[in-house]
Amino acid sequence: MLTGALVALVAVAWHFFAPSNIGGSTRYVVTSGVSMQPHFHTGDLAITRPASTYKVGEVVAYHSTLLHVTVLHRIIARHGNRYVFKGDNNNFIDPVQPTRAELLGKLWIHLPHGGFVLKALHAPIVAAVLCVLVGLFALFGAGKQRARRNRRRQGGSGSNRSGIPLVNGPRHHDGTRPINYGALLAASAFAVAAFAVLAAIAFARPAHHRATKVTPFGQRVTFAYSAHVRRNPVYPDGKVSTGDPVFLSMVRQLNLHIDYRLATDADTNLTGSEKVVLTMTGPSGWKRTFVLTPSTRFSGSHTGTDVSLDLAQLQGLLSEIEKLTGSPGFGTFSLSVGPQVQVSGTVAGRPVNTSFHPALSFSFASGQLQVAGGPSAAGASTPGASASAANFTQTQSGSVSAPATAATTLPVFGVAPQIATLRWIAIIGLLISIAITLYFYLRKRGEPFEESFRIIAQYGHMIVPIVGGEDLGWPPVDVTSIKALVRLAESGQRLILHNRSDDVDTYMVNEEGTVYRYQVKPSKVIWGEWSDEASPVKAAA
Fold it and tell me: Residues 485, 489, 490, 492: is their CA dihedral positive or negative?
């Protein structure tokens, strides 16, 4: 039952807490920054798990394809199959709107400052100490389990059924077994060898190596349009918003807002320029470009521009082009509006010079202006319907790199501790294990034990414990040392009988009718200093 309960407990723990990188479904996110204050602070631990549904208002983790990191923000809206996120402490929405497949899981457990504890547990020196403690626990646990099995085989507690104590192993005066310094000495010697091997591996590798530090950044342009018209059944509030269909018979002017932002976690010092162009494309590759706003300088990583499209003027221009070229109609023409951004400066102290030319494309169909890739006219006839979010938000990734010196690591079982840290662990562990080994060796050599224990430890294979007394019918022959008695037993191929009564240990050998005896009272002896001379116990008068 205990084994079954432990197996069930392990299975439940695996299901709920196993990390995703080892096959589980739980993710451990250590938060940083201020975007989710006051609910989350730097160093908090958020445990997330996948959910069947994700709702507005829930805190969810997702992978940002723009910054290539895991983001933990709150869902504030949903557009089709995409989710809109925003940090509680941010005044802008996230530039990336992930799909359902890109969501990693919603918040399950929030542990304030738990991230610091998790990072501390992943530190190599802490992990090494935990491994040593687990190993020692397993070693002593196995030793105790073997001792219990031995006691069960020998009758439970070292007594026969009549309750008379039997000498079946080394004991102190109080009947307790002495500490097995031999096993401890072997374990500490093994630790010395293990730390010596670790030191050899750590010092055979360089502590640092040349590397390249890559700092990613992302450029994002968000398009939005709006217009004011007379209130009518199509536009009951008199407003045209991003995603609404634009009917040319009612909308004469379309206002377009272009928002540019360069996002990165590193420090930036940037300047740039932006101009907005309109490109008209017709059949047979005909193309014409108009500059809507001239090149304008800006400082920093963000700028915004507003332009207006005179749809009536565009229709007149297209009609004139149709007459001159004989083109079949508006449906063959398309428009694209977009900024041409050039940015230069530094990101993470490294020079950067990049450009970004996104464009929002429109097509003419059934008397309306449609965003390319957006919903059909029938499907988007209701104001507020969402066009393709991928068209309204366009991104471009980049990075800067710099030479750097990185610490060399040694991957072991999914953990990659640094070589410099391993060197310290090896040195400290080697010194400690050597000191412990010397201590156990000295205790083994200097711990005083009863002479009976020393006798059993050395000649236990020849000794048979008995229960009967010493009434032999004739006086036994006393010998002066246990070694003399052992020589008599070996010469006659006899066993040594052992009996303890009245705190006197009696060892006897029956040699062809003559009983040779050696008796000792409980006394302390030192390993390595056991004398052959001993004072036998005088028989009572």
Answer: positive
